[in-house]
């Protein structure tokens, strides 16, 4: 089942307009997640919304948004008042400008979305906008309202659709100077740089996301499976970093290690699994997998022979 659209409205380039829908391009739902439990009873923890002063639970219809202006002073803002803040980007992504892809600082990138035509009309206009962006080799910059906030969105052609990436505002990006000022100015010698370049060349490859493995997720699933099977859980030794005494010696040893790793037999690619992590967990006792059931069930051919 396809995910629900996060937003529906119109995409507009000057006088060219088409209805579109915006879908999330990423998902966190496949990851292992935990509930909070009461250790004594094993029951789930339930959170209640209570008045900070009286301690009494507050009904949802009595909860409003408030902006804190002083210690105990808030300006209340109702849902109706927020809806009255009329922004055109609530219903329309207006393309304001086109920029070179290389000009977008990676720090401004938030999350990607897929933008597709909504319904059977507007495919022609959508294709015109998409192919214009593609031919010009530019990124279109527009605005869109999601969860009651206006966001800058960068539109990039992707196959038959558009990828929209939300961008941060300048006030959301911290300056690097407050973090980098204390880094010492170190003179890197040519010999060290040559050794380091050699390591990079040995490890050079291509960006292939299919090779990525979430080792922490795998370890969590293994932990859950062991506990379900009643096996004892033993702590594994944590990796420790070592102080580098001789940098040149460390670089030379790294070259040897990288070469040995390259010459060794490549690791077997992890088996691709279904989108749901639940299929990776051990089946509950008493249930058999479809493969096991099929293996134990006699085939029609063998039944005919026995007859």
Structure description:
The structure is a single chain. The chain has 307 residues and is of the alpha+beta class. 26% of the residues lie in helices and 21% in strands. It has helices spanning 79-83, 123-136, 177-180, 190-202, 215-228, 247-263, 290-296, 300-306; strands at 7-13, 16-24, 65-68, 74-77, 92-99, 109-117, 139-146, 149-158, 161-167. The chain has a seven-stranded mixed β-barrel with strand order 1-2-6-9-8-7-5. A two-stranded antiparallel ribbon has the order 3-4. A hairpin with a 2-residue loop joins strand 8 and strand 9. The two termini are 45 Å apart. Residues 270-279 and 284-307 have low confidence and may be disordered.
Tell me roughly what share of residues is in helical segments: 25-40%
The secondary structure category is alpha+beta
The run of helices and strands is EEEEHEEHEEEHHHHHH
Number of strands: 9
Given the structure, what is the number of helices? Answer: 8
Mean pLDDT: 82
Shape: extended
Computed over alpha carbons, the radius of gyration is: 28 Å
Distance between the termini: 45 Å
Low-confidence spans = 270-279, 284-307
Fraction of residues in β-strands: 15-25%
Largest sheet: 7 strands, mixed, barrel
For the largest beta sheet, what order do the strands appear in spatially? 1-2-6-9-8-7-5
Oligomer: single chain
């Amino acid at each position: 089942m396809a995910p629900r659209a996060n937003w529906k409205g119109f995409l507009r380039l000057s006088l060219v307009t088409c209805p579109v829908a915006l879908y999330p391009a990423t998902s966190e739902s496949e990851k292992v997640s935990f509930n909070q439990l009461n250790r004594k009873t094993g029951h789930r923890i339930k959170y209640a919304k209570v008045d900070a002063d009286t301690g009494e639970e507050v009904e949802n219809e009595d909860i409003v948004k408030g902006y804190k202006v002083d210690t105990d002073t808030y300006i209340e803002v109702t849902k109706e008042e927020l809806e009255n803040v009329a922004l055109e980007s609530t219903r329309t992504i207006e393309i304001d400008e086109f920029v070179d892809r290389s000009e977008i600082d990676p720090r401004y990138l938030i999350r990607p979305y897929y933008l597709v035509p909504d319904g059977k009309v507007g495919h022609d206009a959508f294709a015109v906008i998409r192919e214009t962006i593609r031919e010009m080799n530019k990124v279109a910059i527009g605005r869109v309202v999601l969860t009651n906030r206006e966001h800058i969105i960068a539109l990039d052609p992707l196959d038959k659709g558009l990828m929209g990436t939300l961008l941060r505002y300048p006030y959301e990006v911290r300056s690097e100077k407050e973090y980098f000022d204390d880094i010492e100015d170190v003179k890197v010698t040519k010999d060290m740089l040559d050794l380091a370049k050699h390591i990079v060349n040995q490890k050079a490859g291509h960006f292939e996301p299919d090779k990525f493995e979430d080792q922490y997720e795998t370890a969590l699933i293994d932990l859950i499976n062991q506990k379900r099977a009643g096996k004892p859980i033993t702590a594994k030794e944590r990796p420790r970093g070592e102080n580098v005494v001789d940098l040149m010696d460390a670089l030379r040893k790294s070259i040897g290690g990288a070469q040995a790793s390259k010459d060794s037999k490549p690791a077997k690619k992890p088996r691709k699994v279904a989108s749901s992590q639940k299929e990776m967990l051990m089946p509950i006792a008493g249930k058999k997998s479809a493969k096991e059931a099929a293996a134990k069930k006699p085939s029609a051919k063998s039944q005919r022979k026995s007859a």
